[in-house]
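Researcher: I'd like a structural prediction for the single chain below. Treat it as a standalone chain; there are no partners to consider.
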Amino acid sequence: MVAFIVAVLIFILLGGAALATMAIHARLADHHRSDETNTSVRLVATLFVTMPSLLLGLMMNSAANTYVAVDRNLHVFATDLILLDRSLRPLGPSADEPRKRLLAYVEQVLKDVPISRANEVSERLLDEVGTSLRELRFDDEQKVALWNDARSVYRQAVQQRWTFVEQSDGSFPSPLICILVGWLTLMFATLGFRAPRNAVVISTTIAAAALISAAIYLILEMSTPFSGPIQLSDRPLVRAVEEIRR
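Model: Treating it as a single chain, here is the predicted structure.
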């Protein structure tokens, strides 16, 4: 919702800047409408063309990398949960309790909105998996080795869990967004300066403002992969639940 509001405000600001300069141009004094003034204004605008384009490209690349990295870590986390269940099964009935707690944890994670939220219930269930796993005792050397492997996979799963939780909170600094919007506003204001006031120019300007606002909305949404309309699928965890229940 925040990203959508920001995008709408940017659209209004960019479109309004262009239409405002287009509307007031005819009311300016003659020396403000001279060819020399127009050339100077457009020259200043060209100085800012490269920087917003470069900044938008860097932000898009950063957001896409965050999205892909979190998606990859989510798949790894789900795989670790499946491997943990598989490493517990050879331990026999004594490992039924950790497996039940593991299943309860994954089911709770799927109920969390977003699934990256580290609430008290899911964290307590994950701790209970580790506690019940540590309480197991075996005399057989083979089972002891399998038990140690299961504990290692559990620690890896916990580490992977916190990795994608921390990555999912990615965001861009507000001053960076403000600077970008300031540059874009100046560019759109110069577009409206001495531009013909007709339907083609106005519709093109509005379309350009809408597309840039949509690009910024996409960037902000992709930087938070577990919220908004552009978010990662919970299918890896659903598949983990299906595998654990078998």
